[in-house]
Amino acid sequence: MTITLFRAASALALAGLAACASAPEYNRVAVDVPVTWQIEPPWREAAPGDTLAKGPWWRRFDDADLDALEVKALDANATLAAANARLAQARASLAAASAAQFPQVSLSSRLGRAKISAERPQTNYASPNFSTVQNDFLGSLAVSYEVDLGGRVRSTVENARAALEQSSADLENTRLLITADLATAYFSLRETDLELDVLARALDLQRRGLEFATARHDLGAASGIDIAQQQALLDATLTQVDVLRKQRAQFEHAIATLTGVPAPAFAIAPRVAQVVVPAVPIGVPSDILQRRPDVASAERAMAAANAQIGVANAAFYPSIFLTPSYGVESTALSSLATYPATIWSLGVSLLQPLFDAGRIRANVDFAQAGYDVTVANYRRVVLTAMQEAEDGITGLAALDRASAQARVAITSSQRVLELANARYEGGVATYLDVITAQQALLNNERLATQLQGQQLLTTVFLVKALGGDWEGVARPTRVGAVTR
């Protein structure tokens, strides 16, 4: 009866120790999330379609060249390859940690022949030592199993699983960043092509103006200053062309690196074409917590750090190992299979820390502080995500209004240039009026081109801020759905 009570008390004590040793219960940290975005009229939110799979968002721009480059980048980008390798490492780490939940079985054997010294220290004075030479053949099967009393193995597995999920989210985030960086460089290059086209048309206009001013000077109807002023304007425009060509080359080199191609072996032919700014379904702010991979990575880092507290805390409790083994040992191979050659052992080892000068407690405090770091980082990532999405939403609304106004300014500038030319030909205005009108038209056309480029870049920025795109979502004509 006493033995039964002792066993029951021991079992209850061990169960209590195991319960105390487990990692703290993990709960995702609550973050204040606004109900809606600050949408400016005439915009309204569109349904995001959360259950639909995220797809290749860049296809919304309907640009075959961009599609081909994105596919190439996903296949050959070195940064993405490194992220894939880190995911493979995390997967292997989880497999290794999970293996500790099961018994470890090993097979060992020994074949030897040894001579024992006759002069060795005696273990029994009544029995003299003799020198012997004999064979030793041994084969054994051993099992080792750790009783996870303190929850160390369980917490280690939880940590590895959360780390794997974090690596998976990091891979998705790397893919999103690379595709967004590539689209940004590509649209910057195409916007430069459009600006170069504007300058090419301006140069044609300015050269014709120079010829006109020269002809009037030769007829005595204009002074040499008209020619000098027009030549100065032409030279300034040619300088801008060289600057834009330098910028275009840099964008081209960035695209080469992102697609895994050496910059000297890469080139994109110039192309002048208007790219339609696509719609981006924005949903509600809380969607970001599920959709942005960097937010998911930060949240999984919290889970991994929480499990690490359990690993550190388990060191307070006994480490128990069961180590049974079975085998045979004989001096002759012919007798290995006989019963007298059988050997076996049953063992239980227990290690309980008694004094370590505060080392285990310091490790627990370190793990707790590490968890606090991940909590602060998670809050920072969420706040940054909200800021970026709000910047993209309000930025696109402002750029749309600015683009509409820029088109009006171009029409007005063209009218001013026509009037200035007519007044100069009629002798009622100086050529400075013509040059001023030409420069104003050039500036307005370049501004309109730059605004279109900014719309494309901001759209890419918004897609990245929202965590990617959804396949199968109806395409409205602007951010969210437009109501005019």
Helix and strand layout, with pairings?
Layout (H helix, E strand, L loop, with lengths): L1 H20 L21 E2 L9 E2 L8 H13 L1 H22 L4 E13 L15 E16 L4 H67 L5 H35 L28 H5 L1 H21 L5 E4 L2 E6 L11 E4 L2 E4 L7 H67 L5 H35 L3 E2 L10 E2 L2
Antiparallel strand pairs: 1-10, 2-9, 3-4, 4-5, 4-6, 5-8, 6-7
Helix pairs in contact: 2-4, 3-4, 4-5, 4-7, 4-9, 5-9, 7-8, 8-9
Task: Describe what you observe in this structure.
The chain has 484 residues and is of the alpha+beta class. It folds into two domains: 16-101 and 150-317 and 358-482, Outer membrane efflux proteins (OEP) (Up-down Bundle); 103-147 and 319-351, Single Sheet (Outer membrane efflux proteins (OEP)), CATH 2.20.200.10. The protein has nine helices and ten strands. It has helices at residues 2-21, 64-76, 78-99, 152-218, 224-258, 287-291, 293-313, 359-425, 431-465, and strands at 43-44, 54-55, 104-116, 132-147, 319-322, 325-330, 342-345, 348-351, 469-470, 481-482. Strands 3, 4, 5, 6, 7 and 8 form a six-stranded antiparallel sheet that branches. The longest helix has 67 residues, at 152-218. The model is unreliable at 1-20, 41-53 and 472-484 (pLDDT under 50).
